Structures are given as C-alpha cells and as structure tokens.
Amino acid sequence: MFQFYAGVFMRSFIFTVVIVIIILAAGGCSDNKTPEPRLSHLRLVADLFISMQNKDHHNAVILIGKLKAVMHDNVFLSTLEESETGNIFITPAQKELDQGNIANSLKIINDGLNQHPLNSYLIKCRDELLMLEQFQKNITAAVNPRSAAELKAALDQLDKLLEAYPPSAAKIKSFVDTKKTEFAAMDLYEQKRAFSSLVSEYELQMKTDRELAKIIAAQIEYEKDSSSTAD
C-alpha cells in the first residue's frame, strides 16, 4: 500500500532539533537578569517535542503558534507549522489508505486543503492520491475488460502512469506485461469473430438483398487485405 506520512513526520522531527538549537543559542545571548522568557521558550520546545513524539499534531500546531509569537519571522517554525498542520489530516488519511479506501483518504486530504489551500504537504498527498485513484481505475478495467479495445485503453493509461510515477513500476509492470499478452490474444479472437459474422451476414444477404451483399463482400475483401498487411 502507498505510504505518504512517514516522510512528513521525519522532516518535522529534524526541524524540531534545529529549533531547539536555535532557541538554546538565542538563550545564550540573553540578559542573565531576565531568564524567565528563555525558560518559557525551552518549556514550549519540550512540550512540542513530546506532542510530536505522541503524534498529537493538533497540540503541536498550538505550541508552534505560541513559539512563533515570541520568535518572530522564524522560517523553521513556519515550515514546521505547515508540516504539523498537514499531519493533522495526513494521519487519518493514511489509515483510510491502509484499508484500501482511496476515496475516503482523498476526502480527508481535500477537507484539509479547503482549510489550508497552500499547504505543500497536503497538495503533494492529494496529487499522489489522484494518481493512485487512476491506477486503481485502470487496473480494475484491465482485470475484467469487456473488450480488447477497453483493455488496450486501460493498458495505455497504465503505461503513462508508470512513466509519471516510476516507484510503482516494480509492482505493476509485470501485471501490465501479462495483460498485453492477453490483449493480443483477445484482439485476434475478436477480429476472427467479427470476420466470421461478416461472412455470415454476406451469405444471408445473398438470399435477400444482393446489392447489400456486394457492399458486404467489398468489406470482406478489405478485411482480408488488412489482415494480410498486418501479418
């Protein structure tokens, strides 16, 4: 199953370490006569670290907001806030995805984007889910095709998706290759069946409508020529 949560959380952890270092450095330059603000910063960072360890992303966002209030224009905090905000929605979305519920997972991410339309983590997850949805749709069509044409259309789409999302190739390429072999056999069978039906229609029309039979005969000759050229 596709995973898109772990990488976001790992980035959050890295930023936490960086922020701790920044706060400690800032505290070292502070006036020793006013240690309270520096201590409150460290307490906030400690609480933030615990919240992130517990995957309590809602509380983490609140604590980041408090840190931002006393550490203005801190780029790292802003990036961390975006990551943790994304994780609020990504965590439940991943649970739905683990159960194979792509539509539910996508709904959760879209709800997040309605509230935070510029969140880069949510945008990336949405794009991956939309691609995964296309994989599912075309794989389903290829498993039970109603015709060779439908199978070919699904395989063509899967080829494009594999080019756009190479990490999926190892899992799906063997399936696509097998289905391409099936397509060749199915297409040949359908052509033979269609030709047989054309011949039967010609024989019937020879008894009832010779003018129409001539047209069908021309079509039969065309099909023969096309088959010879293909061979």
Query: Cα-atom Rg, whole angstroms?
Result: 31 Å
Helix percent band: over 70%
Structural class: mainly alpha
User: What would the average pLDDT be, to the nearest integer?
Assistant: 78
What number of domains?
2
The number of helical elements comes to: 9
Number of beta strands: 0
Report low-confidence residues grouped into runs of 5 or more. 3-25, 27-31
How far apart the termini lie comes to: 42 Å
Beta content: under 5%
Major beta-sheet overview: none
The shape is rod-shaped
H-E order: HHHHHHHHH
Defining key terms:
rod-shaped, single chain, 2 domains, 231 residues, 0% strand
What does this protein structure show overall?
The N terminus is likely disordered. Helices cover 84% and strands 0% of the residues. By secondary structure, the chain is mainly α.
Give a quick rundown of the structure.
With 231 residues, the chain is an all-alpha fold. It has helices at residues 6-28, 36-53, 57-70, 75-98, 102-115, 120-143, 148-164, 169-208, 210-230.
List the helices and strands and how they pair.
Layout: H1 6-28, H2 36-53, H3 57-70, H4 75-98, H5 102-115, H6 120-143, H7 148-164, H8 169-208, H9 210-230
